[in-house]
Design goal:
The protein has helices at about 1-30, 45-50; strands spanning about 55, 60-65, 70-75, 80-85, 90-95, 100-105, 110-120, 125-135, 140, 145, 150, 150-155, 160-165, 175-180, 185-190, 195-200, 205-215, 220-225, 230-235, 240, 245-250, 255-265, 265-275, 280-290, 295, 305, 310-315, 320-325, 325-330, 335-340, 345-349. The chain has about 350 residues and is mainly beta. Keywords: Membrane, Transmembrane, Transmembrane helix.
């Protein structure tokens, strides 16, 4: 009798013990507020951006440009600006009310800077500026925020157009260079974050390329003085004198480095990297002369050399080669855009 009773007690305690062990396990690993979890962050934004691009364009497409993200490709068809969403493959038209002059994509956003010409009476014209938000498919005029007036420039004559635009980056300042058939009498305007505009004073010279940086004193214009073969700052400083060769301003990067090509006849065999805040230069020597138009410097401090004959782009510091098909169009953050027949395609780095 006693033996059977002990056996019953034993079989009763076994499931209770199992339940207690289970509760102890749950308390230690699930309900304990001090439990440590090893969480791995998965960044899908970059993967979404690194998508394959294949969009159709008309044969008469001009001024093909790519947003730095690669999310949008744009071109001018002779009548209007067309913007292609490379993810959805949708095409949207940017309606312009006046004569088209110039456009470019912003440095770090999917926004477009547009310049249009309007008649001002006689032989003169105005330049009117607008911004296009590709994500929202909205265009709006740039207005002086203090005076609530549309931003515009009175041009000396109808031959003047916007030649180049340089963005400073963090300070949200844009430098707009306009000129006629000859750039000797070119003008540069500075537009700040409040959409205020002023004319930049610089020595009378034939202007070449322009760029901008942000140093300890604020934003700074960098430009080519083609008359005296100098690379100058908007405040009058000289970065490169070009005593032994021609100097060509290639670009600036997000760390305010200034990239200068050294060579002759629009070809370079050396690239100098300078900085207004640091008295130190870095030099890259190319194995042979390369057209300055085949050198691409990105905001992310990468230097790409395009070899159109071989259909490849080489990153200078790492030596990594990216092959592409068709005609080279542009470099963007994740790769190369090229035109293959009536299609624009990408080749990822």
């Amino acid at each position: 009798m006693m033996k059977n009773f002990k056996r019953i007690i034993m079989w009763t305690l076994i499931p209770v013990a199992i339940e207690l062990i289970g509760l102890l396990f749950l308390n230690q690993f699930y309900f304990n507020g001090e439990a440590n979890f090893n969480i791995k962050k998965v960044d899908i934004s970059s993967k979404q951006a690194e998508h394959k691009i294949k969009v159709k364009i008309p044969e008469d497409a001009e001024q093909i440009k790519v947003a730095s993200s690669g999310n949008y490709i744009s071109y001018y068809d002779g009548q209007s600006l067309q913007v292609v969403d490379t993810v959805k493959n949708d095409v949207k038209q940017v309606d312009l009310e006046n004569e088209f002059s110039y456009y470019t994509w912003n440095l770090d956003t999917d926004d477009m800077f547009i310049a249009e010409k309007t008649k001002a009476g006689g032989n003169s014209s105005n330049l009117k500026f607008e911004s296009y938000d590709a994500k929202r498919d909205e265009i709006y005029p740039l207005k002086n925020l203090e005076k609530n007036q549309d931003l515009s420039i009175l041009l000396p004559d109808d031959s003047y157009e916007v030649k180049r635009v340089a963005f400073s980056g963090p300070s949200n300042v844009a430098y707009v260079m306009s000129g006629g058939n000859e750039e000797t009498n070119g003008r540069i305007y500075r537009i700040d974050v409040m959409i205020r505009m002023n004319l930049v004073n610089f020595g009378r010279c034939k202007l070449g390329n322009i760029a901008a940086v942000n140093n300890e004193n604020g934003d700074e214009l960098i430009y080519e003085d083609r008359t005296y073969n100098r690379i100058r700052t908007g405040r009058g400083g000289v970065i490169a004198t070009g005593e032994n060769a021609m100097h060509y301003l290639l670009n600036t990067d997000e760390n305010n480095n200034i990239y200068i090509g050294n060579g002759e006849n629009n070809k370079i065999n050396k690239i100098f990297i300078s900085n207004l805040d640091v008295d130190k230069k870095k030099v890259y020597t190319l194995p042979s002369y390369v057209s300055k138009d085949n050198i691409y410097v990105t905001r992310g401090r990468r230097i790409y050399v395009n070899n159109p004959e071989a259909g490849e782009v080489k990153e200078l510091t790492t030596g990594k080669v990216t092959k592409y098909v068709g005609k080279f169009v542009s470099v963007y953050e994740y790769g190369v855009i090229s035109q293959n027949g009536n299609k624009l395609v990408n080749s990822l780095f």
